[in-house]
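I have a small job for you when you get a moment. Would you make up a two-line entry for one protein for me to read? No commentary is needed, just the two lines. Write everything out right here, beneath this request.
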Amino acid sequence: MALEIYRRHNPRKCSSTDTVVCTNRRRPCPIWVSGTKPDGGYVRQTLKTRDWAKAKKVIQVWEEHGLKPKIPPALARIEDLKARFIENMKMEGKSHETIRKYAQLFKQMEAFALDKGIRFVSEIDLSLLEEFRSTWADGDLARQKKQERLRTVFKYARGRKMIEHNPALELGKVVVKPKQIVPFSDEEISAIESAAKARIEDEKRSKEEQERSKQAYALILVMRYSGLRIGDATMLSLDKIKGNRLSLRTQKAQKDISVLLPQFVVDALHAFKPTTPTHFFWNGTISLKSLTNLYRDFYLLPVFKAAKLKGDPHPHQFRHTFAVKLLSSGTSVENVAALLGNSPRIVWRHYSAWVKERQEALDVAVLRANGFESTGAKKSPRR
């Protein structure tokens, strides 16, 4: 018996009994093949296509050459990939911020594809991806993260048979120069707190401005004495503060943390009227990115300027200050990681220079290598 093709109908979606015609015109039933192969073996399997003309060509080549040809994947538009990918991320419970970053990447990809006259995912090759990457006006770290997301998108497309291979895997590595972790000094922290207080006590400022200054002061103290990222701090809800204890799940790493706050930090949080009955700083509608930009640019940067800080101060330095203070006082890397909501590996990578035990061991090693006792008492140097 020669190879024969037929439609395998689904009674729940189509009422046809014909082997060729399907009543479901929008999405016809799949086409199968059965019969004897050129090598004498029997086959009964799906051809993984719903196109009758394409199925006939496959059988013709199979019978002529004895080998079943590989059916190319159906053409998928970039907007279809975006819709499926984003929906899949939502089903997997990815955070809103993660989904936003992927949506932004797709927005840039669609604009690039439109400029190049590209409609389908399979049209994008390595050279086009390199050209697309060259349009990113980001720093090294941001470009590295964006390239990782790009690889994830094309890996998803490859897994769903939208493309035959993942060209993003062939993109060269983006080298990121490690940035020096710079915590605020004690003098800078004192200047920041003094500047924030002065803005509250300035009688020339309106009541609205003074209330905003109280919020800025409280936000500064929360970040300094809890180590929270600005996103977690600005989204802080009233129910996360129980007495002097702050307990919440971080948005970035989805880690539960619990930090004991000094009383003056709690007092500062209750010194102003919360933005809503449930949140200290968030109004309930603004997006996280817009919220952090608002408090960074219009609440904190004016305080940094009034404190006359040198360089380019950033709110994330409060988190660095919190971690460095703990490590310098002898707190273990594991405990600091638990307070920050990070893994010990991440803490060690970023803050190893401030690990007290590590520095003490290095000091002893240097003294011994130069012929001195670890107590500092000098003995004859080794020749």
